[in-house]
Amino acid sequence: QVQLVESGGGLVQPGGSLGLSCAASGNIFNDNFMGWFRQVPGNRRALVARISSRGGANYADSVKGRFTISRDNSKNTVYLQMNSLKPEDTAVYYCRLETSGYSYWGQGTQVTVSS
To answer: I need a labelling partner for 80 at 20 to 30 A (CA). Which of 8, 27, 70, 96 fits?
Structure first.
């Protein structure tokens, strides 16, 4: 089975930066997507960014120009570099792997943007 382990969450001031990482292990096919979703209480998880195994990336409009997603295929690890953080970015960030028509989730890591 697939396991995703996230790290890098924390507290940061508005305008600051934070980096998240997520390492996947298990039966992962070569063609896959890894990405980040975020969720605040009472809301559904929303896509933040997504990247294919070939490196093509998509971003939510709200984070374009501020966040950068990248991955290391040899490590099955996805990263999210978050710059110019805003209070609205505060959420639990979840890593997701999509492979073979199924989705797997990381445990979630809290990102809090506050002064």
So the answer is: 27
